[in-house]
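Provenance

Sequences were taken from public entries as deposited. Structures were produced by running a predictor on each sequence independently, with no templates supplied. The record for Sugar ABC transporter substrate-binding protein from Rhodococcus jostii is shown for reference.
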Amino acid sequence: MLVAGAGALCLTLSGCAGAGSLGASDQTITIAMVSNSQMQDAQKLASQFEEENPDIDLKFVTLSENQARAKITASTATGGGEFDVVMISNYETPQWAKYGWLKNLSEYAEATEGYDEADFIPTLRESLSYEGNMYSVPFYGESSFLMYRKDLFEQAGITLSEKPTWAEVAAAAKQLDSEDMAGICLRGKPGWGELLAPLDTVINTFGGRWFDEDWNAQLTSPEVERAVQFYVDLVREYGEPGAATSGFGECATQLAQGQVAMWYDSTSAVSTLEDPASSAVVGKIGYAPAPIEVKDNSGWLYSWSLGIPESSENPDAAWKFISWMTDKQYIRTVGEDLGWERVPPGSRLSTYEIPEYKEASAAYGPLTLEAIEDATPDAPTVQPVPYTGVQFLAIPEFQDLGTRVSQQISAAIAGQQTVPEALAQAQQYAEVVGATYREDR
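Predicted structure for Sugar ABC transporter substrate-binding protein:
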């Protein structure tokens, strides 16, 4: 259901900013967002934007990650015009810019005094650009790292290498797993942006790849099978209950509530884990780089960013909101009003120079910045590949291909089929995609 008219309800998992002033402003902009904690914070603070811009009214449509991807993609691709601001990522942005679906935001940024587009972390800025211009701007950026209960590790006498291996992680999960606590939490929920995000980094570092240089599918290769079997065995033997339906949100809750000993996932999770209002493990979490096997660097690169569809009827007002939500001052506002642990991480270099944030993020801030800066989307695998992207393939077909493959592997996590059976079906899906690229040569 979409927002339509003054009496409509926001389709939301949290709240709706501006609900009390519908019809009182000159322009209403509709913002499609993912319902993560940082986005919910933005809604809490949105009244400040409306006070500063009384001629602009805000309507939020917030959805779960999988739902948001589907709805935003469908609306933007068809020029539906339902949304003035869309929350997308470095997967969609360059492709949609190439198709002409998005406004060039570098032009807006250059005309906005003090916005400082050059302050964005270079790897993120490049990943959100097409032909040298940014077509979305980062609200927050992330890589991936290992989060672990350092108190439990100390009690058990477990130490990790400076760059831990997956073998070390599996051994620690086995040692710490008990009836009362899972050894590790890993995503098992189907979705190219859910299960496949961490799993793809495992495939990469184990030496696997989706396609070879000639677009021949490689999902039944020994390297991929070993990586997927390792991941499935680890989460089935020492992972959280109901792993096949667990995604980012479920794992965040379980670690924050002290129900798991480790979690490998997004660096953005610190906003939940280090928040005294929502976490029982504040100060008890240690952070380590993304675990490795063969490839030395395995952290992903991702950004939830804001763009303006070409079909928006209010692009200038939309930019006003986007620039407010991604500006240096917004970061300070979050820190001062909600707490420095709630600051959207990994977008601007200047964030890591704020004294209060440096103090609050001492355990994880430098590691987050290093992981984002060191991510290798242009060389994600051990062997050469014809695609870019660490935890996704930057091709249009990946939304469907990745989701279908993830469904097969999630079924293996649920015990409904074996890993070889899952990969045999996944290979067939990939072969169809690969064939289209070979034909285009």
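The longest helix spans residues 419-439.
Residues 1-24 have pLDDT under 50 and may be disordered.
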